[in-house]
Amino acid sequence: MDFPILDEATRIQRLAPPTGHVDVVLDTDTFNEIDDQFAVAYALLSPEHMNVEAIYAAPFSSAGKGIGPAEGMELSYEEILRLLERLGRSPEGLTFRGSTSYLPAADEPVVSEAAEDLVAKAMADREGPLYVAAVGAITNVASAILIEPAIIERIVVIWLGGQPDYWPTAAEYNLGQDVPAARVVLDSGVPFLHIPCKNVSEHLRTTVPEMERWVKGHNAISDYLYQIFCDHHDDHFGWSKVIWDISAIAWLINANWVPSVLTHSPILTDQVTWSFDRSRHLVRQATDCQRDPIFRDLFTRLAAAGEA
After folding, report:
1. CB neighbours (10 Å) of residue 62?
2. Distance, CA of 75 to CA of 205 (rounded, Å)
3. 3 state SS of 260
C-alpha cells in the first residue's frame, strides 16, 4: 500500500499540541471495560475545547466471556447509546457501528459505517485537521486509512495502546487485539500521538472513596459512572482503578497534562516488540500523565453536567 508522503515541516506542525477549539471523532470499544465511558463523557462535556463530530464503536474480544469482535462492537455501540441518553444527547448522526472483525492483513480494510464516515469527515472542508481519538483496537482507523490513504494529510490520530518504545514488549490489550491495524497506523505516516500504558496512562488511577466524594449524586451520567466503577471490582479495600482512556481527551484539552516528545515511528515486529529505524517519519509519544489536574478537570465537568 502506497501512502501520501507529508513533508517534515507539515508533519511537525500537525504534531504540535493543539491550541484552541478542535474537531474530534472518538473511536472506542466502550463496553470492554469502564474507562471508555469516562472518556466519552469527558469529551462531550468539554465543548469549549472540542466539537465531537462522531463516536465510533470499535471491536473487542473477550475469550473468557465468549465475546468476539462483532459482538464486542455491537455491545460497545449499545453502551454509547446508554451514555448519550444519560448525557441528554441524541445519537442521530453522531454514533456509528464499526468493524465486525479485525484486519485480515495489513493491506485489507474492514469496511464499516465508522470507517466510511471517518473518510467522509476527514475529506470534508475544514480549518485545521480532524483529530481522531482512538482508545481501543485501532481497526476502524486503519481501515479508513486503507480505504482512502489521502486522509493521512487531513487527520491527526491519538491512540491509547501499546507500551513505551523502551519497554521490552509492545504487547498490550488494545494493540494485541489487532496488530495489523497498529502496523498500518505506525507505517502510514499519519500524524500520530502514541499514549502508552506503562509509566504513562497507568498513572490515571482513582478510588471508590474519591468517586463517592466528587462524582456520585450530581446527575445521571455521574451516577452511572460511579456505579459501573463500583461494580467493576468486588473488594474496594486498598483498590484503585486506572481510567486509561481519559488521557487522549486530556491531551486535547491541555497538552501540558500529557507531556510528550517527538521521536521516530517505531517498527512493530512479528514478536510484538519495538524495533527502530531513525530514517522513519516522526511521531509524538506521551511520556507521562499529570493525574491530579486531569481528574480535577474531569470531576468538575461531571459535577456541572446537570447544571443549566
Report:
1. 15
2. 25
3. strand
Determine the pLDDT at residue 248: 98
CB 186 within 8 A of CB 266: yes
CA distances from 299 to 201, 218, 233, 279, 303 (A): 17, 10, 21, 43, 6
Gap between the Cα atoms of 177 and 133, Å rounded? 17
Fill in the amino acid letter for 169: T
Distance CA 296, CA 101 (A): 37
Looking at 97-229, which runs of residues are DSSP E strands? 130-134, 155-160, 192-195, 205-206
Instruction: Round to whole Å and give the CA distance between 147 and 155.
Output: 14
Ordered structural domains, the chain, with CATH: 8-12+22-303 (3.90.245.10)
The residues facing 52 across adjacent strands are 24
Q: Which of 190, 189, 80 is nearest to 136 (CA)?
A: 80
Q: What is the Cβ-side half-sphere exposure of residue 72, based on CA atoms within 13 angstroms?
A: 25
Confidence at residue 123, expressed as pLDDT on a 0 to 100 scale: 98
Question: Which residues in the chain land under pLDDT 50?
Answer: 308
What span, in angstroms and rounded, lies between the C-alpha atoms of 59 and 161?
14
Identify the pLDDT of residue 308: 40
Whole-number Å distance between alpha carbons of 268 and 157: 17
277-283's contacts with Cβ under 8 Å and 24+ in sequence apart are: 281/6, 281/8, 281/11, 281/189, 282/8, 282/11, 282/12, 282/15, 283/15, 283/186, 283/191, 283/192, 283/193, 283/194
The label of the residue with cell 469502564 reads 34
Residue type, 34: I
Please give the Cα distance from 77 to 31 (Å, whole number).
Answer: 8
The answer to pTM > 0.90 is: yes
In this prediction, residue 307 carries a pLDDT of 61
Q: How far apart are CA 305 and CA 308, in angstroms?
A: 8
